[in-house]
Every structure is written in structure tokens, then in C-alpha cells.
Design a protein that fits this description.
The structure is a homodimer of 172-residue chains. In chain A, a hairpin with a 7-residue loop joins β1 and β2. Chain A has a two-stranded antiparallel ribbon. Chain A is mainly alpha-helical. Chain A has one domain: Winged helix-like DNA-binding domain superfamily/Winged helix DNA-binding domain (Arc Repressor Mutant, subunit A, Orthogonal Bundle), CATH 1.10.10.10. Chain A contains 9 helices and 2 strands.
Chain lengths: 172, 172
């Protein structure tokens, strides 16, 4: 793993891996948006990630073992990106970060409804969500990327997001 | 707040506030090491933070409302830095990050014993710890910085750290 390892503290090491503003945002888009191709991650980014930054972050996350790559059988030029087990286990971390952000920062309603549902759902929902993510990222990444394999928890979160977004002018 | 606000997503906003590798490490040292003066934060840093980076991060965290400053009555030249309520509420986030790091990254034994205890203690321990931190950072920052006011949870974590460190050659 190409991290600096300035100390063996778990908080420091996690920040060396994920503390660059974009890495966790890319993982978030793969996890909650099921964006599995470079083009989707680029064009649907609400934060407007730049193409070179996205490419560098994906490469780094692959080298760190948080993302895996495979060919897309339906598009010979395309690569499918999937979350690995360590990245899937970030669900509780992202849920806690989402709760904190929702409480202390100027979040938008549409973009925080999923954080609210994850907070309310607690550990039981996180466990279900992680099981779902294992199905669509690890066991069947091709089916998961194409939408043939779906996740009930993800569908629930996405439906809530779309509902709030339709009713709210402020989706950024 | 001087953050970019590239989107209103709670995960993105939290990373804009804390996703710079050093900010959370400074908060960690104030929270778990009760380091409340610039000199301590600088000289005891196991990651070897540079003086100018520490100064910039402290200033930024004060401007973001995560750290407060007050004069130290026993040293006219010194400033006491304290965590604010939003920073204290990062305890569950830091606990989750610590758990994840401990499981997936090459942590050292001494520097991960506190993360282990926080993980095992769960929400109840986090609540006690946050109450303790409110005492020594918000209600009585001067007494908390001088050690006249102490935190039982912090004492327990520190004692475990010192015990493991004495028994382990690898404390970085």
C-alpha cells in the first residue's frame, strides 16, 4: 500500500488513505449511486470532479485495495469498478460522517435524506446494506453494474432521494 | 464558514471541513491526548506535524467553529485550545474511523488500544466520554487544560495506552 505511514495510529492511517477530499466522495458515488463506469462517475458528479482527478483517485483506490476493476462484457472498451470488502465496511463510517455533517453543516435536503435514513436505520440497516453491496460489487459485479442484480436497501435509499429531489428545488 | 460547498451532501461537506489529513489528527490529539497548548501539539505529535501546518490548521478549525481559544491565566503568553460541541460530537465518527483502520490498515498495537476500547465500549462509552470532554473543554477549559479537572474515560484510555506502550517496542 503506497501510504506514508507517518504513524501506526488507526485514525492517522485512515486519514492517509481517505483524507484527500475526493476519495471518500468517489466511494460514496459508487456505494450510494451504484456508478460503476468512469463516464458515470465523471458526468453525474454533483461536486463536478475533474477527469484527471477522478482517474488518479480511481487508480490510487485500486492500488490500495479499496476498488477492484473488471471488464464489462457488454462494452469491450469499458471497465467496471467495484467496491471491495474493506470499502464496503466503510458503510458505518460513512453513516456516522453523514449524521455529523447533517447536524453541523449546511446540507441540502435532497442530498441528506439518505444520511437521515441510514442514521435512523442504525446498525441493522447498515448490515443489510453491506450484504446487498457484497452481492452487487463482489459476487456479481457485472450483474450489479448493469442493474440485473439489485439491492433492496439501495432501492429504498434511491427512492427516498428521488422523492425529496422532485419536491425540492435545491438538489445541490 | 470558509468551505467551498461544492455540494450540500453531508459526506462531501464533512470532507471539505475535515478531509485534509491533518485536521482530524489535531482534533484527535486534543481529544485523546488532552493537548491544549500549541507547543504540546507540536512537540508531542507522533506524526511530526510541521509548525506552520499546525498553526494553519488551528486557525482554520477555530474559524470553522470546531476549536475555541482562551488565555491561559497561569502563562500570560499562552493560549489554551479547546474543543467545541460540534468537535466533541465527532467522538462516534472517530470511534468508527478507528475501528475501520484497526481492521484494515497496518496499525501499531500501542496506538490502536484506545480505538479497540472505544469500539468495545460502544455508544454508552462514547456518551460518557463526550460528557467528560464537555467538562474539560467547554465548562472548565482552564481547569481541564491544567489537569485540575479530569475525565474518567480519558484516564482509562490513557492508562491502557501507557500500559501497552511500556510493553511494546513499536509505539509509532
Amino acid at each position: 500500500m503506497d501510504i506514508e505511514k507517518r504513524s501506526g495510529c488507526p485514525i492517522n492511517l485512515t486519514m492517509e488513505v481517505l483524507g484527500d477530499r475526493w476519495s471518500l466522495v468517489v466511494i460514496r458515488d459508487m456505494m450510494f449511486g451504484n456508478r460503476r463506469h468512469f463516464r458515470e462517475l465523471l458526468s453525474k458528479s454533483v461536486e463536478g470532479i475533474a477527469s484527471n482527478i477522478l482517474a488518479a483517485r480511481l487508480k490510487r483506490l485500486v492500488s490500495l485495495g479499496l476498488i477492484s476493476k473488471c471488464d464489462d462484457p457488454s462494452h469491450s472498451q469499458k471497465t467496471i469498478y467495484s467496491l471491495t470488502e474493506p470499502a464496503i465496511q466503510l458503510v458505518p463510517v460513512l453513516a456516522m460522517i453523514g449524521s455529523w455533517g447533517r447536524q453541523h453543516l449546511p446540507v441540502s435536503e435532497a442530498l441528506s435524506i439518505r444520511a437521515q435514513l441510514l442514521e435512523e436505520g442504525g446498525q441493522q440497516m447498515w448490515d443489510h446494506f453491506m450484504d446487498d453491496l457484497r452481492q452487487i460489487h463482489i459476487e456479481d459485479p457485472v450483474g450489479g453494474a448493469s442493474g440485473r442484480r439489485t439491492s433492496p436497501v439501495l432501492a429504498q435509499l434511491t427512492e427516498a432521494f428521488e422523492r425529496v429531489r422532485r419536491g425540492s428545488p435545491d438538489s445541490r
